[in-house]
Design brief:
With about 400 residues, the protein is α/β, with parallel strands linked by helices. About 45% of the residues lie in helices and about 10% in strands. It folds into two domains: about 140 residues, Alpha-Beta Complex (Aspartate Aminotransferase, domain 1), CATH 3.90.1150; about 220 residues, 3-Layer(aba) Sandwich (Aspartate Aminotransferase, domain 2), CATH 3.40.640.10. The strands form three sheets. A seven-stranded mixed sheet has the order 2-8-7-6-5-3-4, sandwiched between helices. A three-stranded antiparallel sheet has the order 9-12-11. Strands 1-10 form a two-stranded parallel ribbon. About 50% of the residues are buried. Bound molecules: pyridoxal-5'-phosphate (PLP). The site of pyridoxal-5'-phosphate (PLP) has 13 residues, from helix 5.
Length: about 400
């Protein structure tokens, strides 16, 4: 038998960075499983169960034998219901043929990138960014170009920053509002200014609107495709059921795009995954059709998130040395900890070790000097965690 060492794995496997947010969450959960009293601010998902009527519809579909392959871009009724929901929520007219149901919002984003980017193309990614964008762009053979917006501009990119990052190779711009990790929501006017740059340089735009319904303080979400006819023609809207309906484990994403892009996305999906889980799609259909029940669950979740957002923000800003933008969406705050004079990674490691508080370092999101704290956790954990964080910060200043 040959005893030569195995040849190296692929460049894709060697160049991928595993998700740091999932890693911190896993570490916190492991400590908890070992009996440690951890306050975790690492969660990337709502701490609510999926509403009962959605689970019931899925269970009924499973019992009724909806267990086979269906059309790659999703069951017709669900694509219709998604198209109708864009009309009722945003006044956006799209045909069901422009809708693709995918195995997760994450996969919707990846398919969108795969549909428009060739090797060597450049993709502009506003930082702080969701950890998966640069990795997905690299997997498509394209080149991520992060452009940083700090808390000085409320974590919002200025149009001239995007303009300055455009080259002849730029193909795609990614927008994520409300944002993970900052929770920041761009106004309609700000998005119009951003889209003017995309139009000027003929860029495609991927608008990741997964947090579209998790928004507080009376702010309304903007669907990027609704800004004007030009925006509609170049924008791919990714979203999904994970965050709004607390369905992260169901793996159901959506994508809405101009016809030819939706068709390309569906063809890519047909070779990469086939349809999203059939009976899960029937649960999603109930989420959209049984509006009153769905709304009642959503309102309850939003009340809790808004209360915790304010609780966490007032706690953070009461700690000497910490400043924090009060963002209006998703379930994250992104406090500035640069006054403590250490890297965000070192800060997080020591915080977990000394005070058993889990947070994700800003460096994971392309922004040094910050932490991402998720308030998808209980009021008690927030109060206790803030007290521990305050203690930790005091020890650093001493
Ligand atoms: C959670 C999340 C998604 C999608 O999540 P799925 O579970 O794959 O539906 C997409 N984008 C951002 C920014 C997210 O935080």
């Amino acid at each position: 038998m040959s005893s030569a060492p195995l040849r190296p794995l692929s460049s894709w496997a060697q160049n991928i960075s595993p998700s740091p947010t999932l890693a911190v969450d896993a570490k916190a959960k492991a400590l908890m499983a070992a009996g440690e009293d951890v306050c975790s601010f690492a969660a990337g998902e709502p701490d609510f169960d999926t509403p009962q009527h959605i689970k019931d519809a899925c269970a009924a579909a499973l019992q009724a034998g909806k267990t086979k392959y269906v059309a790659t871009p999703g069951i017709e009724d669900l694509r219709k219901a998604i198209a109708e929901s864009y009309l009722s929520s945003y006044g956006l007219k799209v045909a069901p043929s422009q809708v693709v149901v995918s195995p997760g919002g994450k996969f919707s984003c990846f398919l969108a990138i795969m549909a428009v980017c060739s090797p060597g193309d450049e993709v502009i990614i506003p930082a702080p960014y969701w950890v998966s964008y640069p990795e997905m762009v690299k997997l498509a053979g394209a080149v991520p170009k992060a452009v940083l917006a700090t808390d000085k501009t409320g974590f919002k990119l200025r149009p001239e920053q995007i303009e300055a990052a455009v080259t002849s190779r730029t193909k795609l711009l990614i927008i994520n509002s409300p944002s993970n990790p900052t929770g920041v929501v761009y106004t309609r006017a700000e998005l119009e200014a951003v889209m003017a740059v995309a139009a000027k340089h003929n860029l495609y735009v991927l608008s990741d609107e997964i947090y579209e319904n998790l928004i507080y303080g009376g702010v309304a979400p903007t669907c990027l495709a609704t800004l004007n006819p030009d925006a509609l023609s170049r924008t791919i809207v990714a979203s999904g059921f994970s965050k709004t309906y607390s369905m992260t484990g169901w793996r159901l994403g959506t994508l809405v795009a101009p016809g030819p892009i939706a068709k390309a996305v569906s063809e890519l999906q047909s070779q990469m995954s086939s349809n999203a889980t059939t009976f899960a799609q029937y649960g999603a259909l109930a989420a959209l059709r049984e509006q009153e029940k769905t709304k009642a669950s959503l309102v309850k979740m939003l009340e809790a998130f808004d209360r915790r957002r304010l609780l966490l923000h007032s706690g953070l800003t009461s700690i000497p040395g910490i400043t924090c933008v009060l963002s209006q969406g998703a379930f994250y705050l992104f406090p500035n900890i640069s006054s403590f004079g250490m890297s965000s990674m070192e800060f997080c490691e020591k915080l977990l070790e000394k005070e058993k508080v889990a947070a994700v370092p800003g460096s994971a999101f392309g922004a040094e000097g910050y932490l991402r704290l998720s308030y998808a956790t209980s009021d008690q954990i927030i109060t206790k965690g803030i007290a521990r964080l305050a203690n930790f910060c005091k020890s650093l200043k001493a």
